[in-house]
Design brief:
single chain, 4-stranded mixed β-sheet, 5 helices, about 25% helix, extended
């Protein structure tokens, strides 16, 4: 006679911190929910992120920061669009690993400029000397503003960083929004 007994193994469904688990937890990839350069709806989830493992709190920040018309959930670091538009990725010229997600609200402007550029490329008249070309971006930055590194290294004066609260009280300013202490262009 054969005797069948149930194997007493740990479940594969358990989380990562169970003691004698048979299988690891499934790694959930934090992916883009929207392809960069395509239109998005308002309140649409753009990118799920997890905090990175670094030595200090600044290197533990997520990979993408919220840019124009994008907000970040402070707990999960998920980026959401606040308006309808086209999502793009902007890279810092100081530190290339510092990136923002932007949403350009004028969809027609983006579509027309792409169509125009494609038509010019077919005729061989499109210039490669544009900011969207990463090989030319550094040269263009130095051409437009030769001393931009010196400007960025200088801390912003308090009078430039903070608006005058008296103008806010008079109603000339809509909102008091101080600039960031450090600039990551």
């Amino acid at each position: 006679m054969f005797c069948f007994t149930r194997a007493c193994l740990a479940s594969k469904v358990t989380g990562g911190n169970s003691r004698n688990q048979a299988g690891r937890f499934r790694k959930k990839f934090k992916v883009f929910h929207v392809i960069p350069g395509t239109p998005v709806a308002p309140v649409e989830k753009l990118k799920e992120q997890r905090r990175r493992f670094g030595q200090d709190r600044y290197s533990r920040q997520p990979e993408y920061r919220p840019g124009r018309n994008v907000r970040m959930d402070p707990n999960t670091y998920t980026l959401y669009a606040t308006t309808k538009g086209v999502m793009t990725i902007r890279t810092s010229r100081i530190h290339p690993s510092y990136k923002w997600l932007d949403v350009e609200p004028d969809i027609q402007k983006v579509a027309r400029s792409r169509a125009m550029r494609q038509a010019l490329e077919e005729r061989g008249q499109a210039s490669m000397l544009v900011a969207s070309n990463p090989n030319y971006k550094v040269e263009l930055d130095n051409f437009e503003e030769p001393r931009w590194r010196e400007r960025v290294m200088q801390p912003i004066k308090a009078t430039e960083r903070f608006q005058d609260p008296n103008l806010f009280i008079r109603g000339q300013l809509q909102v008091l929004d101080p600039k960031r202490r450090y600039s990551y262009e």
